[in-house]
Amino acid sequence: MKIINGFWQKFDIFSLRLRLILGIALVSTVGLSGLAGWTTWKMQKILINSHKADISKIADRLPRDVQLYHEMMSVEISLQKAIKNLSNQDTFLWVKSSDQKIIAKSNNWNTLSPTIAIELMSLTEMSTQPELGQVNQHYFVLCGGNLSVDGQVLGKLFVVKDITNEQLMFMAMVRSLSIASIFVIIIISGIIAIYIQHSLQPLRHLSQMTTVISLSDLGQAELNIKNAPTEVKELTHTFNKMLSRLAQSWEQERQFVSNVSHELRTPLTIVNGYLQSVLRRQNNLNSTQLEALTTASLETERTIRLLQDLLDLARADNGYLHFQKQICDLNELISEVVKMAEKYSQRVIKFETINQVIAAKIDYNRLKQVVINLIDNAVKYSPSDTEIIVKLNLEDTEVIIQVCDQGYGIPLQHQSRIFERFYRVDEARTTTGGCGLGLSIVKTLIESMGGKVSVRSHLGAGSIFTISLPASALPDHI
Ligand code: ADP
């Protein structure tokens, strides 16, 4: 199966390479076969025409010779003499009377096998125009006609030339020519295949270079292929122009998101401040006003969080997201986050760790933000009566932080995409107020701190988000 798959991958029937090879091989096959066929036909014609001319001459001359001899001798003797003179090793002559009796014949028939001789002599009619015939694997050019002397019809003259040897040689030559043509076609196709493979190399190179370009190096990306044909150079040039346009518009978009987030966050923070202060003095508010103000405050907080996430991502893209990395005790960091999350979510969140100091060089607040995001998701996407467990462990030189829930789980086909920006598994299910940025922030922050994040999830059973970070030893003074 693997071999068959490999074969089809290599011989992609839609590939330009295969189409060019097949096209050129087909054209050369048709061209060479046509040429070989035409040469064969022409040579056959030349060969047979020369023999036809020979026997035509004999058929023309014999009556004249008989006429000449008849002036000195009897018709029968003249006929025999003329036939003797005109026949040779390959040319056979005979004359038949009207009652199909042979009245004269050349004396070279013993060179032919008796069956062929009998078959030839049994012929009653022959065309006046020489033509090719075959008797028992032997090839002959035959012609015939009435033989008259002094206006008196003596009988029918038959002239036959044996061309078997020439014909067999000719057929052997045709066979060799066909075999040679097949070899030439195979060799030409092979050379063409190598040439096409070589010619398409720059295109393959170009496609390989384009696949490795990522968003982060779009601005610096420049395709350059040495010794490429002009057409591929032009294509590379067009690609480069397109890449720079893409980089430009990507940059503008990032700038726009960053500016908008920044400009909106400040006034919204002020609005939220006012809402909070009104809500704190809630004595003179009726229940409808209180509900309206609480909703407004919650939505404002959510929008501020979203803007902060967008700003963080835009800064990370521009390389302006600064980290104050220091070696921290992760037991302390995570137990603090777990306690806080437990209080706000009113859920049971267990913290499991080993009896050992676990430290890593990280930005304290950023890692807190990451763990909060993951716990927040675990809370959002699991039933309220299920447990959430946060585990902290050490594996070789890696610190492993896991956030496990017994929630709805994530379908396999979505697991590789949930870290993309604005990607949400199922909009209908995720009516929890998020906007699909939480996990992309987690990924960006963790990768910027030199770590990795991954997910393992089973539908209906829950999810485990795992963060791994390089471990460090805690300095003595902490
Ligand atoms: P959101 O704001 O939608 O929570 P995230 O980036 O945090 O955005 O998550 C992206 C998507 O991944 C979510 O919409 C949700 O469908 C899925 N997801 C994240 N965490 C979990 C989890 N613990 N259990 C099930 N699904 C999850």
What is the fold's blueprint, element by element?
Elements: H1 2-10, H2 16-70, H3 75-86, E1 91-96, E2 102-105, H4 114-121, E3 131-135, E4 138-149, E5 152-162, H5 164-211, H6 230-280, H7 287-318, E6 325-329, H8 330-345, E7 349-352, E8 359-363, H9 364-380, E9 388-395, E10 398-405, H10 412-415, H11 438-448, E11 452-458, E12 462-472
Parallel strand pairs: 7-9
Antiparallel strand pairs: 1-2, 1-5, 3-4, 4-5, 6-8, 8-12, 9-10, 10-12, 11-12
Helix pairs in contact: 2-3, 2-5, 6-7, 7-11, 8-9, 9-11
Bound molecules: adenosine-5'-diphosphate (ADP).
Task: Kindly describe this structure.
Helix content is 55%, strand content 18%. It is an alpha+beta fold and 478 residues long. The chain has three domains: 1-199, PAS domain (Beta-Lactamase); 230-318, Signal transduction histidine kinase, dimerisation/phosphotransfer (DHp) domain (Helix Hairpins); 325-472, Heat Shock Protein 90 (2-Layer Sandwich). Strands 6, 7, 8, 9, 10, 11 and 12 form a seven-stranded mixed beta sheet that branches. A hairpin with a 2-residue loop joins strand 9 (388-395) and strand 10. Helix 2 packs antiparallel against helix 3, helix 8 (330-345) runs parallel beside helix 9 (364-380) and helix 9 packs antiparallel against helix 11. The radius of gyration is 50 Å and the shape is rod-shaped. The mean pLDDT is 87. Adenosine-5'-diphosphate (ADP) binds next to helix 9 and helix 11. Adenosine-5'-diphosphate binds at residues 377-378, 381, 405, 407-410, 418, 423-425, 430, 434-439, 463. GO terms for molecular function: ATP binding. Residues 259-473 form the Histidine kinase domain. It comes from Okeanomitos corallinicola TIOX110. It is found in: Membrane.
